[in-house]
Structure formats: C-alpha cells, structure tokens
Amino acid sequence: MIDLLSYGAFFLTMALTYAVICLGLNLQWGQTGLFNVGVAGFVAVGAYVSSILTTPAIDGRLGGFDLPIVIGWLGGGLGAGILCFLLGALTLRLRADYLAIATFGAAVVIQLTLLNLEGITGGPFGIGFIPRPFGGLAENPSLFAIANLGVLILLVLVSYFALQRLTRSPWGRVLRALREDEEAAKALGKDPVTYRLQAFAIGGFIMGLGGAAQAHFIGFIAPDNYMPTLTFQVWTMLIVGGSGNMRGAILGAVLVWAIWALSGSLVASVFPPDQQARAASLQIVLIGVALCLVLLLRPYGILGEAGTVRAPLRRALRRDLNSHSEGQKTDV
Amino acid sequence: MTQTMEGPQGPIETDPAKTEAILSARSLTRSFQGFKAVDDLSLDLHQGEILGLIGPNGAGKTTMFNMLAGSLLPSSGSILLDGKDISREGAEKRLRRGLGRTFQIPRPFPEMTVLENVLCGAQGQSGERAISAFFRPGKSRQDEARALEKARHLTDFLMLSHLENEKARVLSGGQRKLLELARILMADPKVILLDEPAAGVNPTLLQEIMARIVTLNEQGVSILLIEHNMDMVARLCSRVMVMALGQKLAEGAPNAVIRDPEVVRAYLGDAA
C-alpha cells in the first residue's frame, strides 16, 4: 500500500515537471503561435544551469557553486529565458518557419555542447548528486515522495496563476490578436516582434524552470535525457491536452506521461530482457497512436482553447447586460 | 526628402502656413517587378478635410493606401505626417503617431469577441506591457476599465453594442466594416485612411456609415477615402483626386471632377 502510494507520488511528481514545461510551450505555441521545436534544448539549459549552481564543487569540473535550490531553479529558468530571448531576437523578424529551423538547430547544438563541454557539464557522464528538495527526509521514502510532490504541485500552481495573470491581461489579448491576424494587429499599433519576443522568452523561462525541477527530482542528468524525443513528448502532451488551454497543458502532461510510464512497465514485464531495448521503441509508437487518436476524435485536444476573456470583464459584462440590452438605439 | 511642392494644379496648397497638410505624399512610386503600380504621385490631405481618392480598378489606389498606412514601403518618394518624414516607419509606429487605416476587406480577429476586437485598438494601455500586466495589476485594471468604457461608447456609436459578446467571425460583411472603424477609432487617430467603407454594405447601413464619417470629420478627424460609390464620394468629400494607371488624372471639387471627360474615359476603360 505504502509502496503504491510512493509510486503514485513519484509518478505524479514526474508528470508535473512535464506539466511545467508544457505550460511554457503553451505560452509560446498555444497563445502566441511560435513553433518551437527545440523544447529539449531549453529544458536542458534549465536543468544544467540549476545543477551547476547547486551541486557541490567536484575536482575536474568547473562550477559546483553549492547554492540553495531555489536560486538554482531561478537561474535555470533565467538561463533558458535569456537563450530564448537571444534566439528570438535573431529569428523572430524572419518568416515564421525560420523559428522552427532555428530552435531545432539550437537544441541539437545545446545537446552536443553538453556532451562535449566536459569541463563544465561532465560530458557524457552528466552531473550527479544534484541536491533534492527535502533531501533530509530521504530515510522515509513515502514522506520524501509526498514532500516532493507538494513542491511540484506548488510550482505548477505558481506557474499556472502567473501565466493566467499574463494571458488574461491586455498583454495576452495582444498576443492572441497577433496570432489571429498580424497585419491587422500592426494596423492597431501592436509591434509583433516585441510581443513575440517577450512571449518566447517568458515561455523559455518556464521551460527552464520545469527542466531544473526535473533535474533536482531525478538527481542525475546526462545529455541523453535531452534528445528530440523529449521535444516530441512535450508537444504531444500539449496537443493531447489542448493547446491554448493551460489546464489542457497540465492534463495532457499527466495523461501522456501515464501512457509513457505504463507502457514502459508493460514492455519490461512482457518482453524478455534481451529484447527490451528494442521493444522500448513501442513506447514512442504508443504515444504516436495516442496523438493520432486525439487529433481524429478531438482535433483541438481534450480541453480545447478556453475562453480567455478576463474574469472581471465577464462579470462586468453580466452586470451591465440588463441596462444595455434595451438601449440599442444609437444617437449620433 | 524631395520637398518639391506641386505646381498650380492643386487649388489650395501654395501657402503651407495657411493650409497645413496633415498628411502629404511626395512623388511616391511603387513598382512590382518593373510594373509601376503607383508612379510619381503626390497628394496632400489637409487638416479637417475629407479627400476622396477614386479611379478605375487597378489604378493603384490600394497600393497608394498601403504605402501611406505603412504596410508597403515605397520604392521612392516620401510621406510626411504633420511635417515629419514617416516614409520608413511601419504601420504600428504610424498608428501611434495618429495615422490609422481600415482594410478594403475587413480583417477582424475572428476568434475574439467584438468587444475584445475593439479593445485591441486601445493605445498606451499599461496592461499591454508584460511587466505592468504582471506586477501592477491595479494600474492595468484601471486602464482596462477606462478602455472598456470607451469601447462600449464606440460599439454604441457604430451600432454594434448588441453584438459585443459575439465572436467577430459571426458578423456580416457590413458589421465587419463597422468593427474595423470602431477598432481604429479606439486609437483616437488624427487621420484615417478609409478603404471602401461602403463596398458590400446595404443602402440603409450605408446611410448610417456616412453619417458616422461626417460626425468624425466634424470632430476634427481628417479622412482620406477610397470609394467606388460616386454618390457617397460626392456627398462626403470636399475634394477628389482621380487616379489612373498609377498617376494623378485629375483633382478638384467632386462634381467637376466626375464630369471631366478624361475621368469618364478612364472609367469607361479607355485609359491607355
């Protein structure tokens, strides 16, 4: 029973780290229409920056600043955010598809850099002994798992409400206007590059934050964790849940991670050990099938795009509805 | 850059101090792969006037418009707003300087409500800056409330208030024209470029739109109007410029210009 509970907490914690990453992608793609296919790279930057900031110093590797975890996470977010800002500043003026090429390229470059910059990133061996939140509770596994789950729930909630505040503000409205018709938005005085750059950088910050949280939860990172498969997973999560909808992003992350984790155990139990490495590809096939099913049955994802009218605005509208509905006559 | 004032053709432009042009185009040219859609055209829109820009299809009116509005950069020539050269500025900067435009084919944000569409026209809202939206929600709410009041006033003015909460995609062609106008008025422009506001609009609504244009003009907004409806042009405009094949064909009072044999010939398809 206790085992099941800890496994459940472990599973949910992991899913929620993806939910944070997915929220970042939702701001970029769902709200702004920026086609970022380099998610893995930005997640990696968040994870590595935070790990380097918080791990103790080790011989033969630069860094290891032994800083508090909170600072590591913020640093990870900032690192990914700044990288997005720089990449966006170079490419967002160009046609939309260039961003896809540039982000994909960036992710590959980042992965190769992590692999080869041994003096800082540990090269192929990665970084280990990343401090975990509530590491002191490690003797009591279930308490430790639940405490970690609590941290991740808090992180998801903070990201959710922060992003909600932004997307429901007039700033978010401009993003949607730009997504729907850039030429018309320009004619209304909105500068597309500025807004896209901001959304891209903020989305990158959230992704980096998610990557950092994930690294501290697993405790060990290596360049292999940040292959294009990760980008594919996060995109599937967003599409399955419903892009443009933050609750959809969270739901999608949990569902797709469930498929991933369950199919992983299935592969482990059904196939003989010498076939397991090959059978693991079935996991990706399953995710692909899930994606196709959702696209066929619910093209806008399970939750679709939420009405994003400001809640206070909606209340005000309801209040005024009666007094307004009669007075349609215009006087000029 | 070229400050060549046009010759005696224009009836009122020799004394710039007296009849200040709020928007002027100087020798504007735009070619598309060798074809000159607009060819060395100059134009002055005076403070407080409604100037009509007419001409047969393919005369280059919309190209001229797009250059004035900033959606298309001129191949040569310059554009001055209030005496300031804005030739190289984009549409978004020009709007912030007070030069707004509507589109010939309306471009509403289809998945946003009518009210949200109109709110998008608001300028200088603190909530439109990410940092203020996040850290100063009080200030942005205050700005938003003010914008909302103004937006409601405009939807009322343009007979859209019963549709406030409808998605813009459900609007009819005529209502979309009204929405275009409401959105741009939200920005308080000094000059509005209206691209065929009457096209595809039923006669009753047309009267209403014309009345609104007159009201705006009385409030001091200068208007450049592209329109095929000659009746509307004759009733609204104090001055008309006729374009054909990218050049100026005639200019003057609407009734005189419409009777000009050159103009008649251009419209009947014998411009070459």
From TrEMBL, chain A:
Say where the protein is mainly found. Answer: membrane
Q: Which InterPro entries did the record assign?
A: ABC_transp_permease, LivM-like
| Recorded topology in the membrane | Multi-pass membrane protein
Question: Which cellular component appears as one GO term in the record?
Answer: plasma membrane
Q: Out of the domains of life, which is the source?
A: Bacteria
Is Transmembrane a UniProt keyword of this protein?
yes
Q: Keywords, A to Z?
A: Cell membrane, Membrane, Transmembrane, Transmembrane helix
**Leader sequence segment:** none
Q: CDD domains given for it?
A: TM_PBP1_LivM_like
Q: Name one GO molecular function term.
A: branched-chain amino acid transmembrane transporter activity
Keyword match Cell membrane: yes
Query: Which segments cross the bilayer?
Result: 6-27, 34-58, 70-91, 98-117, 143-163, 199-220, 249-271, 277-297
Where does this one sit in the cell?
Answer: Cell membrane
Q: Which PANTHER family match?
A: HIGH-AFFINITY BRANCHED-CHAIN AMINO ACID TRANSPORT PROTEIN BRAE, HIGH-AFFINITY BRANCHED-CHAIN AMINO ACID TRANSPORT SYSTEM PERMEASE
What is the protein name given in its UniProt record?
Answer: Branched-chain amino acid transport system permease protein
Give the organism's phylogenetic lineage: Bacteria, Pseudomonadati, Pseudomonadota, Alphaproteobacteria, Hyphomicrobiales
UniProtKB/TrEMBL annotation, chain B:
Q: Which SMART domains match?
A: AAA
- Give any GO molecular function from the UniProt entry: ATP hydrolysis activity
Q: What CDD domains does the database record attribute to this sequence?
A: ABC_Mj1267_LivG_branched
Q: Which Pfam families match?
A: ABC_tran, BCA_ABC_TP_C
- The organism's superkingdom is given as Bacteria
Output the Gene Ontology cellular-component terms: plasma membrane
Q: Start and end of every ABC transporter domain?
A: 23-270
Q: Which UniProt keywords apply?
A: ATP-binding, Nucleotide-binding, Transport
To which protein family does this belong? Answer: Belongs to the ABC transporter superfamily.
Q: Which PANTHER family match?
A: CONSERVED COMPONENT OF ABC TRANSPORTER FOR NATURAL AMINO ACIDS, CONSERVED COMPONENT OF ABC TRANSPORTER FOR NATURAL AMINO ACIDS-RELATED
Protein name, entry field:
Branched-chain amino acid transport system ATP-binding protein
Provide the species name.
Answer: Cohaesibacter marisflavi
